[in-house]
Write a structure and sequence with these properties.
alpha/beta, TIM Barrel, eight-stranded parallel beta barrel, 38% helix, globular
Length: 291
């Protein structure tokens, strides 16, 4: 980021916070969520609000906000990238930088389940509300739904997500639901990525709210994705994950899953923003090519 932009961002935060509202109101918006390609390529950037700073073997890879913003601006500038998913702090920084004109902007809603905390599965709505998404003129809302059948507190998250789905639908805003069945591994919660568990999470999340007209699902790529996709008629976006493994194998798995008729695109963050090659633009371009 050029020093001039960095200084302007810092000064606006300290002395002119009203510029955020002005930037939100004046932002050029897309008329449709899905463009002419029928696909969506969204960059995810809501990890830090849940205390996730690590990528691969570096536990503080995402610690520098300016480095993260640099990577996001590069990713958003690449042809075929439709938009970003983030919490208010990230989205408002990008608005102040003028990086979101003509882009799909999805607000991340529940970030309360902090990584490694005793209350990690208490995914309270500490980010955007449905009303906040409307007020900020965003295009959709995203929520995390982790379901632990052994934890009675899970039902509070299910209820909160159901309410959010209904409120977003009332405003005709899509709800991007990211569900996981959770098991315990030595007491620590772990997402169950077996096909049967993902199918079960799809059934639960698809039924949330007073209408599913504006509901989308954000799902991991797992074995037997054809069975997973058969579990719903809702549009599906594939999520990425930590790029610690074989990047070529990761791209191949996305390519195979993208052939399924209900799969509409990708929502990927760290895998593209912090690629093992170090080349953000090239990694983003490769992912776009899969669409």
């Amino acid at each position: 980021m050029r020093e001039e932009l960095r200084r302007r961002l810092i000064e606006a935060r300290a002395h002119a916070p009203e510029e955020i509202e002005i930037a939100a109101a004046s932002r050029t918006r897309r008329h449709q969520l899905i463009g002419e390609t029928g696909r969506l390529m969204i960059i995810a950037a809501d990890h830090t609000a849940r205390g996730i700073l690590g990528v691969g073997g570096n536990p503080l890879a995402m610690a520098s906000r300016f480095d993260l913003l640099d990577r996001l601006v590069v990713a958003l500038s690449r042809p075929g990238v439709d938009g970003v998913l983030g919490t208010a702090d990230i989205i408002e920084d990008l608005m102040l930088l003028g990086a979101l004109d003509g882009k799909v902007v999805i607000g991340s809603m529940n970030r309360g389940g902090l990584l490694g905390a005793a209350f990690e599965l208490d995914d309270r709505f500490t980010g955007y509300s449905a009303a906040g998404i409307v007020a900020s003129k965003l295009d959709a809302g995203k929520m995390l739904l982790r379901i632990d059948p052994a934890d009675p507190a899970t039902v509070r998250t299910i209820e909160a997500c159901s309410t959010a789905v209904s409120e977003l639908a009332q405003a005709r805003k899509p709800a991007m639901i990211e569900p996981f069945m959770v098991t315990r591994d030595g007491g620590r919660p772990r997402n169950d990525l077996t096909p049967d568990a993902v199918i079960r999470s799809v059934g639960i999340s698809s039924g949330l709210g007073s209408t599913s007209a504006y509901s989308w699902l954000k799902l991991p790529v797992v074995p037997e994705m054809d069975r997973v996709a058969e579990a719903t008629t809702l549009p599906i976006l594939l999520l990425g994950g930590d790029p610690a493994g074989d990047q070529e194998a990761m791209f191949a798995s996305w390519k195979n899953a993208l052939r399924l008729p209900t799969v509409r695109g990708l929502v990927v963050g760290r895998s593209l923003l912090y690629p093992v090659t170090g080349d953000v633009a090239s990694s983003v371009d490769t992912a776009v090519g899969l669409l």
